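Q&A log
Question type: sequence-to-structure
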Amino acid sequence: MHAVSPPAPSGCTDTGNMAAPLARMSVWPVTGRTLSTAAALCRRAAPLGPLPNDEFRDKDLDSLKKYRCFRKYYRYADKESTKTNWWRTYRQFLYPVADDGLQKVDIGFPYVSSSMKKRVKAQREVLKANHKNPELEKASRQRTLLIPLDEVRSEWESSCGPAHIQRVAEHYGVYKDLFGEATFVPRVTLRVQYSTGEDAVMPVYYGNVVTPAEAASAPEVSFQAEEGSLWTLLLTNPDGHLRATDSEYVHWLVGNIPGNQVYSGDEVCHYFPAFPAKGTGYHRYIFILFKQEGHIDFKGELLPNPCHSLKLRTFKTLDFYRKYEDKMTPAGLAFFQCAWDDSVSHVFHNVLNMKEPIFEHQFPPVYHPPQVKFPHRQPLRYLDRYRDSDEPTYGIY
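Response status: OK
Response body:
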């Protein structure tokens, strides 16, 4: 048997294979999925250049180049990653760069890393010494080996720690909100601790959560410094300004710090407790340590003590750095996150002498489709979504 197609409607002529399916669809009802013939009219354009991994296409894996060590492979991979391609990667598609990959300005201290050979040689010597140590072998076999965490942390801080801190700060948008298109590697380790009791302290790392009650008083700050050096310590909040979104509140500013004796410096702005407003989520409180080239006169930045005016505490780190960029260099960084608690109400009412602002998210009204007289496959409480909110509901359920 041969299937006979229905006749074409009047006024329509079958001019080719493309028009016939369209004519059939106009006569016979179509159910389910259909395949449109418009796709056949599109022609795929040639790519602008070679596709990724195009040189390895249709090749045997055994014929490809082999690397005897990972070092050569990493070197080749880094070289290939720096080449400019006509296509965009997945990360470039998600986070497009407006200035075509413009690199940020490094305003920190220059750093010359040791050669790869010296570092690998030092690691091998340490491994050989550990393998020849019978006490380590015995402790490892008996599972009594204790790792000195203080030594591990000091080794991390002196090797790859600053680069890791920079990446975390980039993730939290610290450099973008404080310095714009500039960045720096925190070469000096900044240790900040809030005292929460007689023997308890709350340390500040790189994004950990500290409550406003714990940050009510000035913390203990320590760092390694040479004798005769001068430093500046800044604590700012880029998320808490109540009127201008691009401004900050300065919480603490101490200049001309001799060595690492913070409380012996010139207190330009006394410490003010954290006060994140209710409903605004987590705020970033950022400590920045600057190394001075010499003594700096901060008379233009000096605030009265005590200073409980938010207008006087309005601050911008970028303007402050541009004013003294020839005399100071950012060297250390630490920050924590803080959200509202009951102690913030005390700060607004008793310290700032103002009403406490409370922010709430305004949700859009719930959309309901037009009401159907005989709803099919709807829950029994279908009419509740159309009921007036002021209508009493007692006695219904």
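Response note: The radius of gyration is 33 Å.
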